[in-house]
């Protein structure tokens, strides 16, 4: 059984956000929900400032506090290391959101895609409302859903939490997570941590990786390598 | 006439709760002051307020049954009944907090003993059944010592498991204080005493007759204990503030600064702890029924605010990617729907209690 993990190469990452868009499309996420997200920071003092971009997602922690605290095992670990969530068992207590140190779990506060139920017409007699569009397309709720995703619900269910699944439904079929597939800079690598020859392990051996909040002991399965900086500076004897 | 108005008010409170349930399940939880950061707010803190008060009432009810101090017999029946009412009020708030309450069945079908929340849920299920049995025994036959002991142990379990529940959240240092494992049982006990003083004495005053209960010195003793608890908690509370204030961890220090700037913090400190302590130190106030009523009411108001303050202290600081595009601390103001949850919880609790005072002769001492 493989033990899945992801390496994100920050030197290659251009911060385009394709991963987030691909995730939204694949998992039919509602407005305001970001299973794939980012942390941005600026460092330095003006005019010497830099922008830093760190793509984020569920870390599929080996020692996952969200799993340990879930009263119904709705949040659970698969043998392949993926932290999965079963919406049928979730009581919506949000304790996992309190426990996750990374802020990657989202509660579905309302039915997904409310936009498509909106009867409001922007320009009377000229445009159609979202609800009219759905009716015209013959759809019942939203005009799109992902036919590839057979295990997780197509429409995000209300009253439960959800988060990144490493696209478990795709991985099972031998495909890559959609964020990995969509990254135009090939900054995301997905593979088996237990295979010493995997590209993943080669990268982890070549570059010193770091993981988020390692001191907490959650043992995340998302590793970051390198950093992007095209900058250079003149060599001196040390006076700065 | 008076009682009709009272029942009418309670009915309105319950209708607000039903309206809230309908709206929340049809429109969504967006009706609460929701952000992805503030996942635990007023509905949950009200639940915690009720559940800790019921644990405190369990401690009070154990005084005659478990520890054999018989002069407390006179309040035993009322205490156990009030415990049931308060617990039912807590269930109302919990149901309206949970996203999918019908799936609670998976607590049994898919148990996770490594979760403190699972233990809490199990304890509350057993607690409720045992409480009903205990009250039925008191009402129909004699006090059951075995059931009393179970209730006492469960109350220790529930009030301390809450400390474990928060202690597990390593990523949120403000919640991660062993402080809570002491603070919760202690304030629970104080809340239980305050609740029984308040309900007994208010009823005594309203019924315009110096009932046997109010004539006893028992309430003076209870008031003394409540004042003592308020004082001890005040000292703990001040230490918690000092430790936060001199914390070398930037995160804790900023959280502390935010905490002492919040309204709920000051309500808990001044109304809930300082005032009751001072009032109960004054013999004239302590001996008067209204003095006791005021002090216990203030203590409960303080605890209500305190439960909200501690829940918020854990969630107002966004973590990880949730901090993206957000301020360091997210501000919170309950929505009208969140108030409806609290009102519904109180209405259910008060209705059940009022019905009990009519039908169950709560002032009678049980047989042993
Ligand atoms: S990142 Fe959060 S949600 Fe994902 S496994 Fe770790 S603790 Fe759980
Ligand atoms: S919200 Fe759902 S997944 Fe999270 S701890 Fe509660 S039951 Fe488990």
Number of helices of chain A: 7
State the shape of chain A.
globular
Ligand inventory: iron/sulfur cluster
Counted up, domains of chain A total 1
Oligomer: heterodimer
Please trace the helix and strand order of chain A, writing H or E for each element: EHEEHEEHEHEHHEHE
The pLDDT mean of chain B sits at 91
Q: β content of chain A, as a range?
A: 15-25%
The residue fraction in helices of chain A comes out at 10-25%
- Low-confidence residue ranges of chain B: none
CATH architect. name of chain A = 2-Layer Sandwich
Question: What is CATH's topology name of the largest domain in chain B?
Answer: Formate dehydrogenase/DMSO reductase fold
Give the integer mean of the pLDDT values of chain A: 91
Percent strand of chain B: under 5%
User: What is the number of domains of chain B?
Assistant: 2
Broad structural category of chain A: alpha+beta
List unreliable stretches of 5+ residues of chain A: none
Topology:
The complex is a heterodimer of chains A (240) and B (368).
Chain A: E1 4-9, H1 18-27, E2 37-45, E3 48-56, H2 65-69, E4 75-77, E5 83-85, H3 95-99, E6 106-107, H4 130-136, E7 161-162, H5 168-171, H6 178-182, E8 188-192, H7 199-206, E9 222-225
Parallel strand pairs in A: 1-9
Antiparallel strand pairs in A: 1-8, 2-3, 4-5, 6-7
Chain B: H1 2-26, H2 42-65, H3 73-97, H4 106-109, H5 116-140, H6 145-167, H7 179-206, H8 212-215, H9 218-245, H10 250-260, H11 263-281, H12 283-287, H13 289-315, H14 336-359
């Amino acid at each position: 059984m493989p033990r899945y993990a992801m390496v994100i190469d920050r030197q290659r990452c251009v911060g385009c956000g394709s991963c987030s868009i691909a995730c939204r499309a694949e998992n039919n996420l509602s407005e305001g929900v970001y299973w794939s997200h980012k942390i941005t920071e600026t460092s330095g003092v003006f005019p010497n400032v830099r922008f830093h971009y760190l793509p984020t997602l569920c870390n599929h922690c080996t020692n996952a506090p969200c799993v340990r605290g879930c009263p119904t095992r709705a949040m659970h670990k698969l043998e392949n290391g993926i932290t999965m969530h079963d919406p049928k068992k979730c009581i919506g207590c949000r304790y996992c959101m309190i426990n996750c140190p990374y802020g990657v779990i989202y509660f579905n506060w309302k039915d997904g895609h409310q936009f498509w139920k909106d009867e409001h017409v922007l320009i009377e007699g000229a445009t159609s409302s979202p609800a009219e569009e759905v009716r015209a397309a013959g759809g019942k709720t939203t005009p799109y859903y992902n036919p590839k995703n057979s295990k997780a619900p197509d429409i995000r269910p209300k009253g439960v939490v959800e988060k990144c699944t490493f696209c478990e439904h795709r991985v099972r079929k031998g495909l890559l997570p959609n964020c990995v597939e969509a990254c135009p800079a090939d900054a995301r690598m997905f593979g088996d941590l237990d295979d010493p020859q995997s590209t993943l392990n080669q990268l982890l051996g070549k570059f010193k990786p770091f993981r988020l909040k390692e001191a907490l002991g959650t043992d995340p399965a998302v590793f970051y390598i390198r950093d992007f900086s095209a900058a250079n500076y003149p060599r001196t004897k040390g006076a700065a | 006439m008076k009682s009709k108005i009272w029942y009418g008010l309670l009915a309105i409170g319950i209708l607000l709760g039903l309206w809230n349930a309908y709206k929340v399940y049809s429109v969504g939880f967006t009706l609460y002051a929701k952000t992805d950061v503030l996942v635990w707010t007023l509905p949950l803190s009200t639940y915690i307020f009720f559940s800790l008060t019921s644990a405190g009432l369990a401690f009070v009810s154990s005084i005659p049954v478990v520890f054999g101090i018989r002069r407390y017999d006179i309040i035993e029946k009322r205490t156990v009944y009030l415990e049931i009412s308060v617990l039912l009020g807590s269930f109302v708030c919990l149901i309206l907090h949970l996203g999918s309450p019908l799936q609670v069945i998976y607590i049994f079908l898919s148990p996770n003993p490594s979760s403190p929340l699972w233990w809490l849920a199990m304890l509350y299920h057993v607690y409720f059944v045992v409480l009903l049995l205990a009250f039925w025994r008191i009402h129909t036959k004699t006090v059951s010592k075995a059931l009393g002991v179970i209730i006492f142990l469960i109350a220790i379990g529930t009030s301390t498991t809450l400390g474990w529940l928060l202690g597990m959240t390593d990523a949120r240092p403000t919640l991660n204080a062993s402080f809570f494992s002491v603070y919760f049982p202690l304030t629970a006990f104080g809340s239980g005493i305050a609740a029984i003083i308040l309900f007994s004495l208010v009823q005594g005053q309203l019924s315009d007759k110096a009932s046997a209960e109010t004539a006893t010195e028992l309430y003076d003793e209870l008031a003394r204990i409540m004042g003592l608890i308020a004082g001890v908690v005040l000292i703990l509370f001040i230490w918690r503030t000092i430790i936060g204030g001199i914390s070398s961890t930037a995160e804790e220090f900023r959280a502390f600064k935010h905490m002492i700037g919040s309204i709920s913090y000051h309500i808990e400190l001044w109304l809930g702890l300082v005032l009751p302590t001072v009032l109960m130190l004054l013999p004239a106030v302590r001996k008067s029924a209204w003095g006791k009523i005021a002090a216990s009411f203030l203590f409960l108001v303080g605890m209500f605010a305190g439960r909200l303050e501690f829940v918020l202290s854990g969630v107002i600081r966004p973590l990880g990617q949730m901090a993206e595009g957000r301020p360091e601390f997210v501000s919170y103001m309950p929505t009208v729907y969140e108030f409806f949850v609290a009102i519904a919880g109180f209405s259910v609790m008060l209705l059940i209690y009022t019905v009990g005072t009519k039908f169950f002769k709560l002032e009678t001492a049980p047989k042993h």
